[in-house]
Amino acid sequence: MEFFFYPSSVAVFGSFKKGAIAYEILGNIIEGGFEGDVTPVNPKGGEVEVANVRLKIEKKLEKNVDVAIIAIPAKFVPPLIDEIGDKVKGAVVISAGFSEVGNVDLEKELIEKARNKGVKVIGPNCAGIFGVHANFFGSFEVRVNKGGLALISQSGAFGGAALAMGNEEGIGFSAFVSYGNAADLTESDFLKYFADDKNTKVIALYIEGVKDGRKFIEALKYATSKKPVIVLKAGKSKSGSKAAQSHTGSMAGSYEIYRATFCQFNAIEVEEMEELFDAAKTFEMYESGGKRIAIITNSGGPGVLATDKAEKLGLEIAKLSEKTINELMEFLPPQCSVKNPVDLIADADYERYKKTIEILCRDENVDSLLIICVPPIFIPSEEIARAIIDAKCSKPIVVNFMAGDLVKNGIRLLDVHGFKNFLTPERAVRALKWLSLRKVFSNQDQFQ
Fold this sequence. Notes:
alpha/beta, five-stranded parallel β-sheet, 3 domains, Rossmann fold, 16 helices, elongated
């Protein structure tokens, strides 16, 4: 399926009047910097101008292309696939009006014609796809920055909201696919594909239900053996399950079965969008971690909150060795607490943070570190950020800088050096929990 996400050529079918879906998708492709061949197609012909680029609208597709993006009335889609099937490798069918509204036969006709021609289909009733590292934005959703997260979404609207939120959270994406009714290619196909994609570090999956449970289990097992997979499952309640079925025409099934599957195959299940991106940030930085955490803070309150959350989530507040405690006592002011959490007090500077991080990192009882900073106005947050960056530590470090304008420069500096900030102590602890789960499962011989 590489041609979907790294295409050399694309044709867009639909209306190219301003505001029409095909027009918006065409604009996204051009504005996104796609360097391949782009062909707009509409039986009326003419010209279209998008992003200061004027293109001829072909009346029909005369040349071979990798991907066809189709945004025309549903009843015309099967005949179009029949017409262009010999010239395209894959079709992204944006058009709605198929099984999700009861037109099951029309959807069957679409897939039969596609399979007769050897065309792979994404959709119908979807929001399109991104191949971010190919500068290919074949969707009407907001464009995103390059990175390592592949987002697979059954819902187009959720996918669009998630992309926008990802931009706000500073997430970089490798790809996005909204697969809609999953009439041909499903979440299982994309799980397997992104598991082997060189630019994808983490896979995030939003699902309401799956049509082929066995295929999904095999794909999830394969993907989680390769990379972290984060899952947000909708339709858990009875009412939600019914809503999911009416939304995409798929069976939501028993949530308990899904939950057991996620646990068995090391998928990281999250409860809401905020958690999805926190988990994505976590696994962008590290592959795994342990349950024993050390907390370094310059403010007692956030340290207590982090400790409470850690114990609630089943993490261990690491018992520091006597050697570690003695090393801390040698250089820290007497007002500081050398027990875990280690409280460096409000005037903690670069040297105090850096040295404490390095000492705790050497402790064999510590698997991961949480660094909390609530800087006073007389110590720039960049100073503490630099201490974290410069500290010699090979163990996972998760950071919580609070809050607002006071820490924005420090957070920016951390981000440049690969450290993602978590806005609250609780969210940072949850990140460490996900890392610990990944390590626990990866140590199990479950993939033979």
